[in-house]
Amino acid sequence: MALDKEENMSVYRHWFYGRTHKTKCLFIEFKFGLWNQPSQFFLGRNYHAAVQFFPSMAPVRISDAPSRTFIQMPNIAIESITLGKALDHFAWLLSYNPFLPNFIYVLQDIKLATENKIWYVSDGGENCVPLDHSIESIPQLMTLSDHPKCQFIAEYNGRKFKVLSVVVDGWFF
Questions:
Q1: Chain-centre distance for alpha carbon 145
Q2: What is the pTM of this model?
Q3: Each residue of 23-73: pLDDT tens digit?
Q4: What DSSP assignment string belongs to the chain?
């Protein structure tokens, strides 16, 4: 889940991965007031929901909160891309919609690096992007990123990546 706040309105973005069509889906909740609670979705569970095409930042959006759940089977394969391809894809998306706020990617072959107390995701080559994370979560991300089958599910806002989840050998963390 990703969150944006503006005065009394909160916008919660819940990203899902469609196992049938192998695509990412977005469910947006708008909550008003000071005491608003987002829907609770549990990591590592499957949700059944109707999806629709919306001409927006995500190619597929969920129109209503999923209702039924069941526990996920391990070792699901999620299509992933390298950091360089994700940056190229975001640049391509910006050429069509310059107001695009963010997009989600499943990244492979990621390493973490630090310089001047700022943490970065890197592909070990020419691409390096800052992380949008508190320092407390970095040790867990570093530990998981050492696994050869590690994938970061991260939202990119044009400047930083925010890791929403990590998949290691088909298991969500």
A1: 16
A2: 0.69
A3: 777 777 777 776 777 777 766 666 776 666 665 555 555 655 555 555 555
A4: -EEEEETTEEEEEEEEEETTTTEEEEEEEEEESSS--PPP--TTEEEE--EEE-SSSSSEEESS---EEEEPPS------B-HHHHHHHHHHHHHH-TT---EEEEEES-EEEEETTEEEEE-SSS-EEEB---GGGHHHHHHHHTSTTEEEEEEE-SS-EEEEEEEETTEE-
